[in-house]
Amino acid sequence: MAEPQNSPKDLRQAPVQGGLPSALGSTTSGAIAVAAESTTATRMSAPPSFDVADFPVPHGREEEWRFTPLERLKGLHDGSAAAGGADLKIDILAPDEVTHELVDRSDPRVGKAGKSVDRVAAAAFSAFEKASVITVPKEAVLADPIRIAVHGQGGTTFAHQVIEVGAFAEAVVVIDHTGDAVLAANVEYHLGDGAKLTVVSVQDWDDTAVHAGQHTALVGRDATFKSVVVTFGGDLVRLNPRVQYQGPGGEAELYGLYFTDNGQHQEHRLFVDHEAPNCRSNVAYKGALQGQDAHAVWIGDVLIRAAATGTDTYELNRNLVLTDGARVDSVPNLEIETGEIVGAGHASATGRFEDEQLFYLMARGIPAEEARRLVVRGFFAELVQQIGLPDVEERLIAKIEAELEASVA
């Protein structure tokens, strides 16, 4: 990889809960979507490991691979992909308090958040040349975000990024992926006690890009982690956001939005591991789909271990299908090993526009396409507002509207 450039339990299988999003007409199944519940998604075909040899080559029948078109991974899953071609171009813009290093795999900070959970993540860990470590010192409160621009230039690359936020420090990080690449990359977030970290990861790849990655957050005592994952581009994007708690009082908010277009495969597989007591998590992902063979997959796994008394958790996935030919697979999973919790629930809903909604807007003089845009913008608005950076929010709203324009053209 090119060197970054710096600038200035007793209860299991709880029922699916919740209702429909306001923009959806009905929950659907079959050709449009599959909504299911099963704790088996937390049981991987091999235990976590940094060694590729510990993972069998997937064939598509495994629980963690059954939705993924393996032939479109360009060899990332079976070992046939080798680094080559033009490398990634990475630019980092960070406040003066922040340090950046390139380190070897032996550095104790690399892999601290957790081991790889599938063969692609293990391959990325085994193959990267240098890991990038960005450190926010303890008690530092950054006035400006850290911006990491990752631009693909056509090659195949394996990468590893560590973002470490010291105790009682506060930071916002934006990771922006553009261009064309075949990329397997792992990202770690280390939060010290009382730290606050917001991460916005944008996948705005060219249509031919392939991106597979594991994002693992290690949340310290009384620390707060917010993740906003935004996926628009790429031929295939498969991300594994994961959260673990180092001590009591930790909070995690995982938000995501995706717009899946003609022929794209976008897959988000979340896992929140509640092992410490009195921790909280909230997951909300929303997607819109349009075009023939557009395929979105959302897996939401929450495990509340026996020691995690006082846990409060909820996960939500909602999908808006804009055209025929699109498919959603939405699988919420909740596994609870203690009855001494504050609350736990999950919801999944998929559907189309209600004709009554469009008629209501059109009856008030709003043209049909403008009404359609308003409904989609309203569907995503709550999540976009979680970003908290006006320039990024405006760009994403513009991207959503551009996707809608393309569907009309």
From TrEMBL:
Region (Disordered): 1-27
Coiled coil (residue ranges): none
Domain of life: Bacteria
Pfam family, one: SUFBD_core
Residue ranges annotated for the SUF system FeS cluster assembly SufBD core domain, each copy included: 152-379
Family: Belongs to the iron-sulfur cluster assembly SufBD family.
Record's protein name: Fe-S cluster assembly protein SufD
Species this protein is from: Streptomyces pathocidini
Lineage, uppermost ranks: Bacteria, Bacillati, Actinomycetota, Actinomycetes, Kitasatosporales
Name of the gene encoding the protein in the UniProt record: sufD
